Amino acid sequence: MTYEVLLIPIVAFITTFMILPFIMKYMKKIGHVGRDEHKPDKPEIPESGGVAIVLGIIIASITAILLYPDLWKYFSALSMSVLIAGIIGIIDDFKVLGPKIKPIIVTLAGLPIILLGAYIPYLRLPFIGNARLFIVYPLIILIAMSLGTNTVNMLDVYNGAMPGTTLIVIITLLIISILRNSDIGVILSLILLGSIGAYLYYNKYPAKAFAGDVGSLSVGAGLVSIAIMARLEFILVVAMLPFILNSYEIIFSIGGLKERRQIKERPTIVLDNGTIMASSSKSAPITLARLVLAKGPLKENEIVKCFIILTILSCILAIISELLIVGGFM
Amino acid sequence: MTARSGLLSHIIELSGIITLTWIFMLLTLFLIDKIIDFTIMIINNRVLANVVNLLLAGVIGVILLKIIFKMIENYLYAQLKIREQ
User: Fold this and answer.
1) What ipTM was assigned to the predicted interfaces of this complex?
2) Tens of pLDDT along A219-244?
3) Is the overall model pTM greater than 0.90, yes or no?
4) At A253, is the secondary structure helix, strand, or coil?
5) In chain B, which residues have their Cβ closer than 8 Å to the Cβ of A321?
6) What is the pLDDT of residues A103-130, one digit of tens each?
7) Distance from CA of residue A163 to its chain's centroid?
8) Cα–Cα distance measured from residue A176 to residue A181, given in angstroms and rounded to the nearest whole number
9) Taking the mean position of all CA atoms in its chain, how far away is CA A174?
10) Interface test with A, best of B4, B18, B65 (most A CBs within 10 A)
11) If you ran DSSP here, which 8-state letter would residue A30 be given?
């Protein structure tokens, strides 16, 4: 692999960066906007900006196929998984899918990886080593796709939170792939890095665009695809630990899968001075933001900074986990 | 204590929860590794041993998640109680 590999994230970045303004304009024109609930004046922000992320990943995957034709099935599997998750996301953005149906339908995003055989049915785990799971592994791919996409979706609440934190996770996957000499891991991570990096520019505080479910589900599908194809499953779980705890706490505290609109009590309250405070109600969902705000109110960008610090910590733990896997604990 | 140092100590506490969860995960894997050795030793059928291992791993995972959930829930409500006072 030579420096030409850098062309891939550049293509992903430029595609997403150039397309997103047109999507924002179109969404505004058709009235597909969402209220930024964490601002005192609640401005209207164009939704479904994640379409640009999906397009960026697809165009970059095509570039990767042209540069590295031998690895075509991995890039095809990534782009198809992201596309399927994106289609489900856009349907959900316009016509809300049920909270129980969405996690089931989104498992379809795992099918391209299974059908193209772009996986090795061994889980790399600390202490256990290579866990052979010939029969169960395809099922694990489908479940992981459902959990991963919804985990990212549940974190996409504050300006810059989803792209900011996932970008750190992707950089971690990239570092570990470089250390492992995994060409597949490096290229797949670079594809997502470019696209999400461009989206962060528009979503950072104060946001000009929202990803919508099309964005969060496709980013989740992209992350899970990289983890499976580059054999970074356990590493991704550790790197995403704050997000996983967030989604797990939400589901358990509200007593199952529920649509955002069905939850009566909000976990946080926006104060008149623009800061956000944790709700003290026991019936409000337990979220990562509520934990961060437990000691007192913070500004929205401060909450996101806390998320980023926690993600950096979990990514350091992910790198230590990788060292445990390769360092004789197998 | 300033707001900034208060926030920093809070982030350190949250980092502790994440690190503790990670240590729990590693301990679980260590435990599963030992269980795998044991089940393979007592069950001659490899497929059946794998099924038993997966079920046990699932049970241990659920117990672990419940412990972590309770820990986070208790932490949150203790913090909110301090804030209210």
Assistant:
1) 0.88
2) 999 999 999 999 999 999 999 999 99
3) yes
4) helix
5) 22, 26
6) 999 999 999 999 999 999 988 888 888 8
7) 7
8) 8
9) 15
10) B18
11) T
